[in-house]
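Now for one protein, fold included:
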Amino acid sequence: GVAKNLPRACTSRMDPSQCFFPQYLVQNIKTPLFILNAAYDSWQVQENLAPPEADPNGVWHHCRQNPANCSAGQLEVLQGFRMKMLTALRGFSASRVGGMFINSCFAHCQSERQDTWFAPNSPRLKKTIAESVGDWYFDRS
């Protein structure tokens, strides 16, 4: 019964179950939105891309914990995962009311700790996460 609450602009052109996925849902959100995520989201890698249940021989075990332990083939898979995410966000990145901070850290939940927002060594894409969110929120260039 939840499909009736999804944007009609999405459900009219595709199966409503697809409209739960961010790359389709975000196109229809009217409220200003800021997306903060790691392109190599460690939780996604550990739980969706290479979950232990799908890796009974433990081939991905060390790579899941630290990308420095990945083989060349595993790094290709991780790079493909990153590229799919960036491609999915391409339309959103052109939005005038939306903002993004997508880094290439092997991390998850970068918004809940002060050190990832304000520390001198926090992730930067010319600006820290805090500066990027603040500039977007207060409409600073």
In short: The beta strands are 34-41, 99-107. The CA atoms of residues 67 and 75 lie 7 Å apart. Residues 31-137 form one domain.
